Amino acid sequence: MAGQIEKRLAGLGIKLPETPLPAANYVPTRRVGNQLYVSGQVPTQDGKDRFTGKLGSTYSVEEGQAAARLCAINILAQARRALDGDLDRVVGVVRLGGFVNAEPDFMDHPKVINGASDLMVEVFGEAGRHARASVGCYSLPRNVPVEVEAIFEIG
Hints:
Elements: H1 4-11, E1 29-32, E2 35-41, E3 44-45, E4 48-49, H2 61-82, E5 90-101, H3 109-124, E6 131-137, E7 146-154
Parallel strand pairs: 5-6
Antiparallel strand pairs: 1-2, 2-7, 3-4, 5-7
């Protein structure tokens, strides 16, 4: 039945945003066979970076999780656009890749990316369980603390 994922999002209090245009020479999504690749999304809200700074100095793990969750919301918005508004076409979340802008002594990258992973499971249930990478890096575009990319299986 169409609209189940939208109902689940509404139940979680999530309204997916309009998707922005790419900031460089890339596409926000690319479909290959039954997979949908979503380019890295950063924690923007209402067209502005909601978080800027580093994990381990500017932000706590919990704040980083909120930033990663916002990245995941933006991923879902991009996927919805690519799937003509129908997130029920998602068969499963295959993989998330998370990048954490962190101080050299920060070690909780996986905990930060849990903010995105947890949302995928909340939204898609068991189909939201996925393979994942979480990588620490020295910087990210516009000094955002987190960037997350995704691969979905679609039907």
